[in-house]
Amino acid sequence: MRTYAQYCPIVRAVELLGDRWTLLIVRDMLVGAHRFNDLARGLPGLSRALLSRRLRQLVNDGVVVRTEDGYALTKAGEDLRPLVFGLADWGARHAFGDPRPEELDPEVLMWWMHGRIDTTGLDKRAVIQVEISDRRRKYWLVLEPGDASVCYTDPGFDIDAVLTSDLPTLFRMWEGEIELIDAVRAGRIGLTGPRWIVRGLPNWLRLSPVAPHVRAARAQAT
């Protein structure tokens, strides 16, 4: 373990959590990821070998515990919630400018989005084709009662609705900078399909967990 050789609780915390990727692993676990593959898919820049090492260290440090189907945060891990989302608040106010090209990964965005769709009110399947206009890529959100999945190749189902956007705009919507309904009305995002999907999607799609912090920061800045 890297040590700063200073007797201070801040130093001890940084020694435990300051390695690259560690806080992002905790972030994803705080919002529901607990299987190794789910963590890996949400952090594609992190190799599986390094993810294993970081998880092993978090287990050794008492932040994470192994479970039958993956990993879970201990009380010490859950106690990091205000710290992690405090960083989100600070970052939204002081460090969150325009997106950089290397930050815009469409497959990561689709993975994040599918995990935040609430399908409990659905009584039948809805298949939404997502077209990323500036990347010429298509993805499919398959919504079933009580479940949502994302497909990176055509799943073979009939398409019920089509959402079209460039990638930066879709990220801005996800992060809470713009409302989906407002973006559709302004023509920045296209959404075509039956009325029950067009009206339902803004309610089904829960945005990024940091969206409230981004919205608050934007409101303070205006």
TrEMBL record:
GO molecular function terms listed in the Swiss-Prot or TrEMBL record: DNA binding
Organism: Lentzea tibetensis
Record's protein name: Helix-turn-helix transcriptional regulator
UniProt entry tagged with the keyword Transcription regulation: yes
Keywords annotated in UniProt: DNA-binding, Transcription, Transcription regulation
Signal peptide: none
Positions of the HTH hxlR-type domain: 8-99
Pfam families hit by this protein: HxlR
Keyword Transport: no
